[in-house]
Amino acid sequence: MSGRRDFLSMPAPENYVAGLGRGATGFTTRSDLGPAREGPSEEQMKEMLAKRAAQLGQPAPSAYGAVEKKEEDEEEDRFQDPDNEVGLFSNGMNYDKDDDEADRIYQDVDEKMDKRRRARRLCSSTLYLRRTDTDPTPMSREAREQKERDEYEKNNPKIQLQFADLKRALGSVSEDQWAALPEVGDMTGRAKRERENRMANARSYAVPDSVLQAAASSGQLETSISSSDGEGTMTNFASIGAAQKSALQVRLDSAANSSGTRTNASGTSTSVDAKGYMTELDKKQARGEELPVEDVNRARMLLESAVKTNVHNGPSYVALARLEEVAGKVHTAKKIIEKGCDMCPKSIVVWEEAIRLNREQLPNAKIIAANGIKTNPRAIKLWMAAIDLEQTPAARKKVTRQAIDRNPQSVELWKILINDTEDIESVKLLFAKATDTVKLSEELWISYARVSGPEEAQQILNAARKAIPTSWLIWVHACRLQEELGKNSTCDKIMERAVKALIKENAMPSREDWITQAEICEEEGDVVTAGAIIKATIGWKLDENDERKDTWLEDAKNCTAHGRYATARAILAYTVSMFPYSTRVWLASADLEKHHGTAEALQQILERAVTACPKQESLWLMYAREMWQAGNPEGAREVLARSFAEVQNNENLYVRAVDLEVDAGEYDKARQFLHIARNSSPTDRIYFKSAVLERQLGSFETALDLCNEGLQTFPGSWKIHAVKGQIYEALGKLKEAEEAYSLGTRAAPKAPVLYTLLSRIQEKTGLVVKARSTLDRGRQQNPKEPLLLVEAVRLERRQSNTNAAAKIMAAALQECPTSGLLWAEKIMALESRTQRKPRALEAIKKVEQDPLLFAVVARIFWAERRLDKAATWFTKALLLDPDFGDAWVWYWKFLDMHGTEEKKGEVLGRIAAAEPKHGEVWQAVNKDPKNFRKSVEEILRIAAAKAE
């Protein structure tokens, strides 16, 4: 085995870099060793090449001798050509034996060329010496180049050479002279720095109000005399707002003009909408506005460009002519439109505009109309314009007949001819001719039937139905004809036939279209036809599996909103026939009759309802209430007696009976009903009503007995605890009242009203700290309860502790940010007058729909004397929740100061129908025993007097 090492096991040569001959460099891949290393340096390459040449027995490569640079060549590298190949081999990375041989060959060639040049220069110098007596010494190329270089440096000295003598002279400068030198001034960017300093020290001022006011009132004629005496300064903020609005409008108009009238750079097209521009000009002309001169010039330039770009575009001519007309150049407008007629003879709008512009001169207008019709004989609009130019009925008929001869299928022309005819028989003949010519016109057939007698109308409609079997308007008109003749029973049959025929022809309209047509018939007085349409078509394309009941109830609601009550009544009647045992449908029908019908119709609906659904207590209650409100107490008692037989031991029926007897003043009967209810179906509500009745009648001992009896059976009823405490409070027994409320809070800890009543009675007795503790306990049992939070704030306010109240309110709004009660208390009690409106805006954004908050906003506008705004917000509150009594109270107080008697009467009627039950101020007055048996109007007036 040979002792020679394997090639792969041999050590790498010195300074070896893998892939160096291919242009690669060494690198590392581990990130902790740093970036890739560079190749060998120039000294290493020279050492390697010299070592290699010594091994081969050759001299080291010199690359043209590689002489040292002279001092004068030190700056020549700056002008080195970057594309020169010399730089590629400057570090010797790719230098090999072939390169060295090539360098030697080129060096030999250069030396031979230098010898040849020197011999040639020697001969030339000899000849020159023979001719002239100058120095015979020949000049070599190197000397000549050196001489030229010296001359160049002499003519173009370097900067350091120019100041060389001055630099040498600085050695003789003394220290005192150096110290006496002035400071060097920096002149670079001095102007820029000065300008920046001026801008930094400059001051800006806001535009004064007087300038804005002058801008708003510029161009106006002042016709009033100022009542001020000239002393002091008054700022008219309304004028300032108007000026700002005017400035904003000017900027918006400017932006619109700059963006809406763009043209491309080449000028060969434009984005001007000619038709839209005509419409805008018409609007401004109708409003009596004058276009600014700059707008007219800009528009004229753009429209002229549009006309030149497309000479056969008719609307461009019309727009340009209309612009000139608005600018007052009617003659120019006529010339432009005349050119438009020549260039666009098939454009109808151009001829119409030409006729309009020349209408003052009828002969010219008629000539233009004749030329336009000659070019466009089937243009109906031109014929109609020509007809309008005629002054006498005979001339109009003549032109109309000529138009019909050219356009026999035009319905508009037939209508013009018929309208210009006064004789009824001639009208019928014209209709007969028109319907025979234009057989597919529903309008002509229906109009023909209307001007004819009943028998003829039926024949005409039958012929129309055969001519247009897909027309449903003809069937509707046939039904309306029967209603006008008094044959209401045949309307349903006609509509049934109409539905079958239209389905056969595959021309049945949608349900929505039929409902719309029924509303049109009702509006024109044909109520029976509307009902027949609904009955025949309301179930079209609705299967039994669909939510037909909800769909029909929604349709009736929409018709009611449109004011079409007969159509809604027909829809509900059909719905009742399909769903006779649906309480919701009966209540919807009763509600429609209550608000938009008669009392007799309402009682008939309710009688049918209780007969169909005898076990539904809501229908019985509504029936009894409506009988009572209609002034029939005996009928109401009879209804309740029937309800007791159908629905036994029902709490709501007993309560309704008690209310009716109390309203009638029959207290013994009311007590009898309550006694029967306590024995047959005792509930906490029955005991509560019994105690309240005895309290209102002044029987406090009996009321307390009933409360104790009720609490034995229903100890968790917080209403009975509240009534018991209020009775003791009315008797002046505050200690017993506090005990009753305290017992109630332990028996019903989730009733915030009891905690409120207990804290108030404790505050009344001077136990303020105990009252705070009670409210804290209530808030622990009922977290995030606005009623307790508001009561805590009011307790601190009554103690004149505003800071504590504000802190409690801040924490309360963190717990209940959407409580309208808390926001209302904060706005009206804790905010200054100037901050109420911003807080109200913030509250509305968070709460959105709250009648109390709407009433607060209305009160804010009322305080600012903005009465229209206040009335609007009061109306919003009432529409949002008519059961909220406080909104009625504040609205009535507002109307009592600023309303009319008519408006007050309207409000009294609406509140009587609404019968509100809720509201802090309203409940405090309505449930006061002193106001027992007082009407809603009296309660409203008392509450308005107490509202603060």
UniProtKB/TrEMBL annotation:
Domain PRP1 splicing factor N-terminal: 12-122, 140-190
Compositional bias ranges of the Basic and acidic residues kind: 39-50, 141-155
GO biological process: spliceosomal tri-snRNP complex assembly
Region of interest: Disordered: 14-101, 130-155
Keywords noted in UniProt: mRNA processing, mRNA splicing, Nucleus, Repeat, TPR repeat
Subcellular locations according to the entry: Nucleus
An annotated GO cellular component: U4/U6 x U5 tri-snRNP complex
Full protein name: PRP1 splicing factor N-terminal domain-containing protein
Native species: Periconia digitata
